[in-house]
Amino acid sequence: MEPGGGGQIAAAISGSAAGVDRLSALPDDLLAQILRPLGTPDAIRTSLVSQRWRRVWSLLPELHVPSLPGDPIRFRDALAAHQVRLRFLQVLSTGGGTADPKSISIWLPAAAARVSGNFALVVNQISPAAEAAEEEGWDGIVDLPCFQDATGIMIRLGHLGLAVPPPAAGVFARLVSLRLECVWFDDPSELEDVIASRCPCLQHLRLCHTLRMYTLTVSSKTLLKMELEELQGVWELIVDTPELRELIVSRCLLDDDPIAVITAPRLESLEWKYSAGEIDESVELGEMLHLRSLGKLAFFVYGLHDLSYNRTTVQFLQRFRAIETLKLMLGYLPEINIFQYLMEEMNVLPDLAILHLMVDPNGHAFGAGTFHVLKMCTRIRKLILELSGSSDLEEPNACGTGCICAQQTNWQSEEFLFARLQEVEIRNFRGSDHEDSVVKRLFESATAMRKLKVTFDVSVTESKARELCHMFESFVTTPGVCMDFRYRNHTKV
């Protein structure tokens, strides 16, 4: 706000209350400030007040349109007449309107000409007419213009087609973030060309739930973060990104003989969520000397021998000699008596500094699986042990007598020594007998612990939390340990 602007507005409002229209006498920039707290539709309605207010809304730097324009030509003309550059333009389908590709394509060029910040177009569902037309062979494609001045683009199209602009349309000169979700591409190579040669500042790319993308090549000298999630049917993925720091690939590749070549020598964080059999010799990850973190991997403690999902996890872990942080989830099926204990199939882990171990016991004893992992991580400095949240079970180990989960007892007597473990964090602790035993066994082996943080499960009352605090204090034999206990919305005990 300009100096003195607040006083001018206050004086004008006071005068208006006395029956004098002093608001309309204010400068345009101050009138625009009055309209900013209003939603975009209400701000536009002020144009009916008088001739003076007719164009005031066009001075707003941000527009939030809650529904797709029913008259695309009128909306196009309004954008073209907007008097300031838009630092944010959002158009949603949540408030109604017809998701007609041709209608959207009419006003998009005007949006591209006005946006100098972020643009968001969210279409959750296409109209029945558009669906019927697509089934009859109509292209159903939204033509994306070149947003030469936009810094961020987010488009979700309810699986409408998207055609990127041809090279002659120009360059996305300032684009830093590009997110395309629920779209399909008739020719994915056109998108590949845009990323490789027409986005000189692109740092963040997210492609999610796309169709008709059987092959994908991403080549960029500027990308720092890339997220590829559920790109249905991709059988070949080529990534050449020399500056990439974070990569997420989630259920993108076909299960049967996919090809993937990842060249990202400066990668620091890798999260690869796969379908069974997706990681094999045909997936080349290249040199990743700076890799520090692997995203969440999962392993089933009980199941059929040589379970493909477990085998894939083990094969993936064997690709890395050392990383800083590993997130690993141990899963238990509700009924395990018909299965085998599978933890022996996991016989090696990378050298770690931080282990985030998530355990979903489904009512079973989980000490054996937990300590099988821990005995391969005796050099860790920090452990996060995260238990599953509240369930209908009275205790996490209330699976009934005779369950095979009680057969693995070596962890209770084996010698463990975590000589470098200085920090332990336990989440969703409920205080069952089995949880108590696991924690006590851990603390007996953590001779160098300096910091302990425990967050109790939401089912734990304050009085129960205080009892558990005393129990933890009795378990910790190392002097000088800093302890932090919290329950219910992280309230400190």
Automatic annotation (TrEMBL):
InterPro entries listed in its UniProt record: F-box-like_dom_sf, F-box_dom, FBL15-like, LRR_dom_sf, LRR_FXL15/At3g58940/PEG3-like
Record-annotated F-box domain positions: 20-56
Lineage: superkingdom: Eukaryota
Membrane-traversing stretches: none
UniProt name for this protein: F-box domain-containing protein
Pfam family, one: F-box
SUPFAM superfamilies: F-box domain, RNI-like
